[in-house]
Amino acid sequence: MKALTVRHGSAAHRTIQVAAYGLLAVAVVLIAVYQPDYLLINYASVAAWAVAVLGLNLVVGYGGLFTFSQSAFFGLGAYVTAILVSDEGWSFLATLPVVAVCCGTIGLVLGLPALRIRGLYLAVVSFALVLAFPSIAKMDQLTDWTGGANGKSAFIEWSAPVWFPLAVTDRGWQFLTLAVIAAVLFWLVSNALRSRVGRALMALRDNETGAAVSGVSLAWWKASAFVVGSALAGIGGAMLVLVVPIVGPDSGGFLVAMSLITGLLLGGSGTVAGAALGGAAIVWIPQFSQNVASALPFLDSNKAPAFTNVVYGAILIVVIFVMPGGIVSFLRRVRDLFLRVEHVLPATEAQPVEAESLDLVGSNERAGSSRG
Amino acid sequence: MMIEALPGINDTVFHAPYLLGLVVSGLTLGAIYALMAISMVVTYRASSQLNFAQGEMGTLGAFVVFTLCVEHGQPYWLVIPVVMVLSLMFGAGVERGLIRPVERRGAHSVVIITLGLFLLLNAVTGIVWGVDPVTPVTPFPSGITDQWVIMAGPPRFAIRYSAVWIWGTVAVVTVALVLLMQRTRLGLSYRAAATNAESASLVGIPVARMRMLGWGLAAAVGSLTAVLFAVQARSMDFQLMSGVLLFGLAAAALGGFDSIGGAVLGGLITGLVEMLVPALFTFIGAQLSQVMALLVIAVVLLVRPYGLFGSKPVERV
Amino acid sequence: MTLLDVAGLRASYGQIPVLHGLDFTVDEGEVVVVLGANGAGKTTTLRALSQMDSVTVRGSAIFKGRPLVGQSAQAAVRLGISHVPQGRGTFGDLTVQENLIAGAYVRRDSGGVRADVARWFDTFPRLAERRQQRAGTLSGGEQQMLAIARASMARPSLLLLDEPSLGLAPMIIRDLFALLGALNRDTGTTMLIVEQNANLALSIATRGYVIEAGEITLAGPADQLRTDDAVRRAYLGF
Fold first, then answer.
1. Residue C208 pairs with which residues in a beta bridge?
2. Is this complex's ipTM strictly greater than 0.90?
């Protein structure tokens, strides 16, 4: 079966894109209506984690700053929302902008000195933040707000409003809400990255010296990536509170940091779609590991939870071997079997560039390719 | 002294026995961090990568030592070197089998592999040996009363025998490594490959094998670190090394990731900071003491981005 | 006697082909120069001969009667090929002396190695002065001397040099080529030099080739190339 070829940006291409997104929207609605509650919790969580991974992606994948500390913002966002909702009676949606501003500002404050530090050193410093978060959350002086080691519960009433035509449970409505929020944020980020902003970021990721020489202001772009990335991580954490109404000191700790990083790298760093897949990975892989673990006959029951991590670790290793660009690159390969998007280079040079195979992963994605 | 007048500062720190006790603890812990830092630096110099699973590999090694010594009654002076050799082979195998195939895809892939390995080994250790803490093998007398009393007190200042043994072991290993690196053909080839892999292969040095050696050495040192830490802590479980990995990294960063000497100094300073800073500033509270040490290091790195002893690499355009 | 016989040499970096079938020879005792613009494939040619990992090589290259293609980089060195890479490739963290010793990695005779180190320090007193200094702190010209000495420590049958004049001041470049010429005359070391700076290179060379876009477009004795119009305009600038 020969692959269908379309030119990037052409009418045919756009039609396919709209159709694909339309299908996605329909699928989301169908899931909200027909899936059982216990699965809807997972779907909703995927949306929340996907936003957080998108934030991490901006900082690590596009900004090139290898840092673990986004988890601290994730936890911070969760706490802010929980406190505002349960102590101050705010509505959930109203807390989101506050979270964004709060995390973005702190991200700016922390990010500015971090600009001086390079590569692995930044990783070490961000480790400190990750360790710091649970400790700060447990600090005696803050217990009134944070609930100390026991955490804070923030149950949010969330049912479908009267005007909504379809019958969805509360969980379904939670999922729909978060899916919409995630979609909006993804769309915004995707558009920003396709523009001059995105190209500048990607230039500086690939070659800092070259970028500096071309007049790209490194510090400014990196700081921006850090600010927006932190804000997104915070929003992700806040979103999760809608689904899992309890926040604790570990909400921004080491496990969360690890989850975010693995979600990012599994999904596909440096791509927007990868963030969504990363969110899915964060939610589904532990479940999958647990199922495999409990299905194995030779393990006694109290060791099964530990075995989850064995499977998880093995999956990480296998995925990286088999799908080096993350799941996104694998899916793109599959898509390329059916549909190829041709990129046409502007003016001067002779022929249009043929659809690239994924061995030149960089050039395909960085040219702002089809599905964002 | 003026310092005593400042609020929040714990002025009992300045009583000699207490202060000396903290310094000794700091140096002992620091020696262990130094060893961990050496492990990280060796890996980094060999491949420009960090092995986040290094701690767990060490824990595994320490548990193997435990099983062979405590459950099978083998002598520790034989088991520990044997396990170090086994760790060397394991580390070399990890490099060859897991790291090398994905290296050219970039640093991110390698990070995920080591994180996956971290999870895997951590869980496997927990499964095979259970989650309950055990008393580790004690190659040196390390009971509560095994110490040299220097100031009878009160407060008392004493140096545990195990502390001296730990310092001695770390010193011997450090010297041995430095001699290997500086005075042998193998060490020269290793350093050449670490400095400029392309040129090294152009003079016929088997760069791939040098990488394996680097990871192997790091793993051997890592296992020794775990054993020593277990002795120091007088207890071990499958989470033994998670904290040490972090501080080893911080120590290596402080030392500049360049050299074994820098790693040692970085480790000692980290240990001292971890002991002294919380004691000095008691308002911080127990929860933040670990964080404080890291934050101090972070501040140092702000001022000196390449560590205290590292040298700024020249970037080839 | 033909030392190196290359036929249909193809080389690529991953999927990107760079050399599209080169045919050339190097005879014992010669200095052969390869000229070409940036990106023509000069460096790739040398990397292919050294069998470096980054290059996929196909075709035939017979060195001293043995096939090179398919061997490891280490085997190429053992066979007698020494490569001075572009940019010198100094072991920056090692001392000058250690750099020289590293160059002799494939040799087993430690006494001979020590003697050679002493000889090179005689030839380059500036290096002798800095023997315990970290090689990364040397000037460009000194590093180039060091690189040549290091590559020669293996007592190679064929010395490959990749743009030795790159980044050096004009006076140093003159000294450099004088040195290379003397080295070839006194020790008979065969050299294959890749250069953009055609004039000086051709002045010490026996023969030369011109590479364009991965193919040899011109070949001939050095004197002929120096006066050839096309070469003159493209590479000598007048």
1. C33, C220
2. no
CATH of the domain at A52: 1.10.3470
Q: Which residues in A lie closer than 8 A to residue C14 (C-beta atoms)?
A: 359
* pTM recorded for the entire structure: 0.82
Which range (A28-32, A179-183, A322-326, B128-132) has the least confidence? A322-326
B203 touches chain C (CB under 8 A): yes
Q: For residues A362 and A358, what is the distance between their CA atoms, to the nearest angstrom?
A: 8
The neighbour count for residue C215, using CB atoms within 10 Å, is 14
Q: Judge whether A372 lies within some domain.
A: no
Residue whose C-alpha is closest to residue A223's, from A130, A129, A104: A104
pLDDT category, A362, cuts 50, 70, 90? Answer: very low
The domains of chain C, with CATH numbers, are 2-236 (3.40.50.300)
Separation between Cα atoms, residue A90 and residue A126, nearest integer Å: 31
Residue-level pLDDT at A215:
53
Residues of chain C found within 8 Å of residue B188, distances taken between Cβ atoms: 94, 98, 101-102
**pLDDT computed for residue A352 by the predictor:** 23
pLDDT at A176: 86
pLDDT, tens only, A150-161: 777 777 777 777
For residue A184, give every residue at least 6 positions away whose Cβ sits within 8 Å of its Cβ, in sequence order, or none.
Answer: none
Handedness of CA A190, A195, A197, A201 (dihedral sign): positive
* Architecture of the domain defined by B2-135+160-303: Orthogonal Bundle (1.10)
DSSP state of A345: P
By CB neighbour count within 10 A (0-12 exposed, 13-18 middle, 19+ buried), where does C177 fall?
buried
Which has the closest alpha carbon to A264: A330, A316, A225, A302?
Answer: A316
Q: Which backbone phi and psi does A368 adopt, to 5 degrees?
A: 70, 55
Q: Convert the pLDDT of each residue in B45-88 to its tens digit.
A: 888 888 989 999 999 999 999 999 888 888 888 899 999 999 99
Order the strands of the C2-13 sheet from edge to edge: C16-27, C2-13, C56-63, C66-67
d(CA B168, CA B317): 45
Token pair belonging to A196:
């001059």
In a domain, A293, yes or no: yes
Rounded mean pLDDT of chain A?
A: 75
Residues of B in contact with C83 (CB under 8 A): 202
Who among A113, A118, A261 is closest to B115 (CB)? A261
For residues A254-263, give the mean pLDDT: 82
Full domain range(s) for residue A8: 4-366
The single-letter DSSP state of residue A249 is G
**Cα–Cα distances in angstroms (integers) from residue B145 to residues B141, B153, B309, C113, C163, in the given order:** 9, 15, 38, 57, 69
At C220, the amino acid letter reads G
Q: Name the residue of chain A whose CA is nearest to C16's CA.
A: A360
The chains found to touch A (3+ Cβ pairs under 8 angstroms) are B, C
| Distance between CA atoms of residues C47 and C160, nearest Å | 9
CB contact under 8 A, B199 and C73: no
Average the pLDDT over C132-142 and give the result: 90
**Higher per-residue pLDDT: A278 or B105:** A278
Q: What share of chain A in percent tops pLDDT 70? A: 76
Nearest to B196 among C83, C89, C154 (CB): C89
Residue A371 counted as domain residue: no
Q: Look at the alpha carbons of B129, A317, A53, A102 in this order and tell me if their dihedral is positive or negative.
A: positive
For chain C, list residues whose CB is within 8 angstroms of any CB belonging to chain A.
Answer: 14-15
Q: What is the pLDDT of residue C128?
A: 92
- Residue C51 near residue C57, CB atoms below 8 Å: yes
Interchain proximity B202–C93, CB inside 8 Å = no
φ, ψ of residue C167 in degrees (nearest 5): 80, 10
Q: Kindly tell me if the per-residue pLDDT of C110 is higher than 60.
A: yes
Domain count, chain A: 1
Residues A3, A125: Cα–Cα separation, whole Å: 48
